[in-house]
Amino acid sequence: MAPSRRLKRVVASQPGFLSLKSSDLTGEVSSRRKRVNKNKKKNWNKHSDINDVEDFLEDIRHQERTTGGLLADKSDDNLFFLDVGQQPKDHKASEQVQGKKRKGKSQRPLRIDLILQHDSLVPPIKDVLSYQQPNAKKLRGHAKRLEQLAAKGVVPRTQRMLLNRQTLNTTAKKAATEANNNPKRDYYDIWGQESKSSADPWYLQQTGKKLVKRPEELNKKPSVLPAVEVIAPGGSYNPDFFSHQALLQEAHDVEVKKRKAESKIERQLAVNKEDRATEETIFQEQVEGLVEEEEEKEVAAVEEEEQVAPVEEEEQVAPVKEEEQECVGGAITLAEKKTEKQRKREKAEKIKEQLRVAEKNQKSKQQQLFQLRSIKTAIKKREKKTAARQKQRKAKMEAQKAQPRRLGKLKFQPEDLEIKLSDELTSTLRQLKPEGSILKDRFKSLQKRNLIEPRERAKFKRRYKLKYVEKRAFRAIT
């Protein structure tokens, strides 16, 4: 509006200008700028010239529509190009041959496609409502927790159940959708005992038609020992000299260990000869207490005489003590109430003690900062000790796997070594005498491998005593 008014004023000031309006005489007066009070808000938009601002904003919007942004922000490569002139004909022909897909005119888009094509480079306004979700914050937290579990390698319970359900559903669907005329179907024996069922696996398991999956713990062997242990080379019917001597040494060590245990029990149960009773010790036991009674009577009489005098003095002093006790008892019952000053003093002392303890703890914590090096060394030593203990514990557990466990009230007793002495060796199998029993060896092997508990042969115990009765026929004969 301002440029047009200025142009009108310039034209009207020229000599020989005639206005076609009837109010020509008052043109100069009306063209003057009207004085308006802009302190009031209602006159801001009414009498303010904002055309230059609107033109500037329209220019910016035009640049965004045509170029996708402001020209001042773009680089020179996006605004200018290098003109190298016309290309040679051969090069043009080769490009046309490569670019052509069919004979005739070059492919150009249709006019209707150009009209419908979106020419604005301004991205469309994002619809905020379409991106809103209920409980979005809660869902983001849940997704973040799932990502943390996935980073640790932990599968959530819901996902595990979903995977198991999917596998069950797929198997059930395959069994249900299998057609009878499918040439790849399994051969079905009509006279077979097993019935082909396509029911739900959970239903089959609950009704007992399908066996429960065996736990993996039951598949582990209770011992790492082999079922049949091969005897040492010295146990052969015609062994090598050194291997036979090694087996004899092993049997000797076992016997020595047994003898040591037996001798230890004998020493513990043996009776010392010095502790046996003699005639003198028997007489002392019989006389004990008879001679000392007379001396004890004399001592008791002297003590009674000494106690007579103090008793009389106590009788005289007794009433005074009773009065004192009554006063003390009355003081305890009639305790005076604490004053406000005493309570305040106790409270101040209590607060002072608390502050002292807190200051002491703070000082101890600050002092620990200077002990970081010693604390680190102590932690390292402790970690080394724990690692050594764990290693030792693992080695002990591995060693215990080859040892029989305590399954019952009896302890496993290994069988004696089956060995022949040097003078019992024979040169042929015909003269060989068998050692041990195969049945007993298998029974001990089951106990050693923790398959059965150690047992003993049941002893027969008679419930009632035998009763001898003489019959008539016996009497008649005798």
Question: Which key phrases capture this entry?
Answer:
single chain, 478 residues
Question: What do you see in this structure?
Answer:
Among the domains are: 51-76 and 111-125, no CATH class; 135-174 and 197-219, no CATH class. Helix content is 54%, strand content 0%. It is built from 17 helices and no strands. It is extended. The chain starts with a helix and ends with a helix. It holds the Pfam family Nop53. This is Ribosome biogenesis protein NOP53. One of its GO terms (biological process) is ribosomal large subunit assembly. Residues 32-45, 99-108, 383-394 have a biased composition (Basic residues).
Provide a compact summary of the structure:
With 478 residues, the protein is an all-alpha fold. It is built from 17 helices and no strands.
How does the SSE layout of this entry go?
Elements: H1 2-13, H2 27-30, H3 51-67, H4 76-79, H5 89-99, H6 111-116, H7 128-131, H8 136-152, H9 157-177, H10 201-206, H11 241-269, H12 279-287, H13 292-333, H14 340-369, H15 372-401, H16 438-448, H17 472-477
Q: Which consecutive residue ranges, at least 5 long each, have pLDDT under 50?
A: 16-29, 317-324, 326-331
Count of runs of 4 or more consecutive helical residues: 17
| Helix percentage | 40-55%
Question: What does the main sheet amount to?
Answer: none
Shape: extended
User: Average pLDDT value?
Assistant: 79
Provide the gyration radius in Å.
58 Å
